[in-house]
Design brief:
Blueprint: H1 2-90
């Protein structure tokens, strides 16, 4: 009977050890899936950040160019007004 009890006890320990190994394997598998998902999201976020940065930089350049054109137009208008005024000053009434 002692031999049977020892065999049963060994089987029980083996069963517990196998269950623990199965849980560890499932946990490892789940963690690998989560890691792949996190890496995928991080890659997408990096790409999205790159696109947004390029877009923002492009919009800033366009805005800066528009502001420069506006300033140039203002200067041209002032010069035209001064030239027009100077022309009329040459012909007194």
């Amino acid at each position: 009977m002692a031999l049977t009890d020892a065999g049963t006890e060994a089987d029980a320990r083996a069963h517990v050890a196998q269950a623990a190994a199965n849980r560890a394997e499932l946990s490892r598998s789940r963690l690998e899936q989560e890691k792949a998902l996190v890496e995928s999201r991080a890659k997408w976020l990096d790409e999205e950040l790159g696109r947004k940065s390029e877009l923002l930089q492009s919009e800033r350049r366009a805005s800066s160019a528009q502001a420069s054109r506006n300033q140039l137009c203002q200067v041209d208008t002032k010069i035209s007004r001064k030239n027009s005024q100077a022309t009329w000053d040459c012909y007194p009434l």
